[in-house]
Structure formats: structure tokens, C-alpha cells
Design a protein that fits this description.
The protein is mainly α and about 290 residues long. About 80% of the residues lie in helices and about 0% in strands. The chain has helices at about 1-25, 35-50, 55-80, 85-105, 115-120, 125-150, 155-165, 165-170, 175-200, 210-225, 230-255, 265-290; strands spanning about 110, 205. Helix 1 packs across helix 11. The longest helix is centred in the C-terminal third of the chain and has 29 residues, at about 265-290. The chain is globular and about 65 Å long.
């Protein structure tokens, strides 16, 4: 039971990362590698403020703002300097490595003696259960806020920019501003995820962002394959559930004896299989028709 609660709670904390990746990968149709820098940026910002005596909520909000700034930098490189989106994300990610070291002052910053959001708001529960409850509440609030926002005119313009930028530009919408806004929102959510994971794990590390884009993509793709994409609301729920399923799969393979060093390889293979599922289904359907 402890393993189940721990797996689900981690799934909720990482679901914010998955939602952020979904906003760029599916909504904006951009492969944004900034998340590999903004995730540890959120963790570094929150950890530094916590050790300085700030309230955990203030630390998380500051982490969100730092992530938003990182998204704006990538958006500026992409829209104003006309650097390809993939390369712009890589440039920001590389720069953030040094920024994160500057913020923390060292490569690893422990939080073992610091109050976190999971210790001050535990409501009499143990830390593991408190992490599950608080993580679920935060994710549901974020999902509801995103659902509301993308139902507004500005949100619809952001979605249309990813679907058909030429059409939305012909209607007088500044697509560059929509791209920057989407990247801002995405990396803000990723930074919050980094801050929450750091507070939950009890440390922030400069290298904790390595492979986060693959983890986010795995959650998005697994959620879409298993739970569908019938509507935007359905997509948000699918991404959250996909994050939990991904964490469950990781927990299972670790329990089966897989070396932790092979997790990145396993995740890459899992994402590759999930991405190829539509093609496999189409091939299987055509074979069934040919047999009939």
C-alpha cells in the first residue's frame, strides 16, 4: 500500500510537468527542450528560498515566475531572433544549467531540515499521504484553470496558433505573442513541478532535469493511447492519468529487478513504442481487412 500511495503521489507531482509538455508538444506543436532546464530551475529556486527562510508557498510561486521567465527567453529567441524552436529550447536549457548553479551555489542543496508544503499542511496525515492529497489538489486546480483559460478568446487563439498559424495570422492575431504565452505557461507549470518534486524528495540537484522531456512525453503519449483525446478536457485528464500510469510502470519494473541506471533507456523505448502505436494499429487493421 505504501508503494501504491508513493507511486500515485509522485504521478500527481510529475503530472504538472506532463501538462506543461502537452501545452507545447500538442497545443503549440513545438518540441520545447527548455523543460530540461526549467524543471531544475523551479527546484533550485524553491530550495534556495526555503533554506533562506521563505514560506513554501512563496518559494513555489517564485519557482513558477522563474520558469515563466525561462519560457519567455525561449519564446524571444524563437519569435524575434527567428531561431528554430528546437534549437532555441536547447540554448535556453544549456544557459539554465549555469543559472541553476548560480542560484543554489552548489550542485546539490538538501532540504532535510526545512519546512515544506507537505510538512506544514499535513492535516495530521503522514508525509506520504499528505503528498498524495496536496499533489492531487494542486493538479486538479491547474487542470481546471487550463480548461477555463483555453476556453477563452486568448486561449482559443493559442490553440489555433498551433493548429494553423497562417489562418490565425490572417485573422489579425499576433502569433508570436501566442507562442511566447504558450511557452511561458508551459515552463511555469514545469517549474512548479520541479519545486514540488524537490520539496517532496528533500533536495534540489542541478542534474535532476536530465531526461524530463522524455518523461513528459511518455506521460502524454501513454495517456493519449490509453485514455483517448476526444476533447481538450479529456486530453488534460489523459495526461494526468498517463503520468500516474508511467510512474506505476517504473515502480513495477524496479520491483522486478531492473537496475535504476537502465530507467532512461526503458523510458525511451516505452515512448518509442507508444508513438508508434497508431501506425501499428493501422497496419493491424489493414491486415485484418486483407484477411477478410
Amino acid at each position: 500500500m505504501d508503494l501504491v500511495i508513493s507511486t500515485i503521489s509522485q504521478g500527481f507531482l510529475w503530472a504538472l510537468l506532463a501538462i506543461g509538455v502537452y501545452l507545447t508538444f500538442r497545443v503549440l506543436d513545438i518540441a520545447d527542450l527548455t523543460v530540461e532546464g526549467s524543471f531544475p530551475l523551479g527546484a533550485a529556486t524553491a530550495a534556495t528560498l526555503l533554506t533562506a527562510g521563505f514560506h513554501p508557498i512563496a518559494a513555489i510561486l517564485a519557482a513558477c515566475i522563474a520558469g515563466m521567465i525561462a519560457g519567455v527567453v525561449t519564446g524571444f529567441l524563437c519569435t524575434k531572433l527567428k531561431i528554430p524552436a528546437l534549437l532555441a529550447g536547447i540554448l535556453t536549457m544549456i544557459a539554465l544549467y549555469s543559472v541553476n548553479l548560480r542560484i543554489m551555489g552548489k550542485a546539490n542543496l538538501p532540504l532535510l531540515q526545512q519546512d515544506t508544503i507537505f510538512t506544514i499542511w499535513h492535516f495530521g496525515m503522514d508525509k506520504m499521504t499528505a503528498t498524495l492529497v496536496i499533489g492531487a489538489v494542486i493538479v486538479l486546480i491547474v487542470a481546471a484553470a487550463n480548461y477555463w483559460f483555453f476556453g477563452t478568446e486568448i486561449g482559443a487563439a493559442v490553440r489555433a496558433t498551433g493548429d494553423n498559424p497562417h489562418m490565425i495570422r490572417a485573422n489579425g492575431i499576433n502569433t508570436d505573442a501566442m507562442v511566447v504565452l504558450g511557452l511561458l505557461m508551459s515552463n511555469g507549470l514545469v517549474a512548479i513541478s520541479g519545486a514540488l518534486v524537490a520539496e517532496s524528495n528533500g533536495f534540489a540537484d542541478v542534474g535532476m532535469g536530465v531526461g524530463t522531456i522524455v518523461i513528459g512525453l511518455a506521460s502524454v503519449i501513454i495517456g493519449e493511447v490509453l485514455f483517448g483525446t476526444r476533447s481538450f478536457f479529456n486530453c488534460l485528464i489523459s495526461v494526468i492519468l498517463g503520468s500516474i500510469v508511467y510512474r506505476a510502470v517504473i515502480a513495477i519494473v524496479l520491483q522486478m529487478g531492473m537496475p535504476p541506471n537502465d530507467l532512461k533507456l526503458f523510458t525511451a523505448i516505452l515512448v518509442a513504442i507508444a508513438l508508434s502505436m497508431p501506425l501499428i494499429k493501422a497496419r493491424f487493421a489493414s491486415m485484418r481487412k486483407a484477411v477478410r
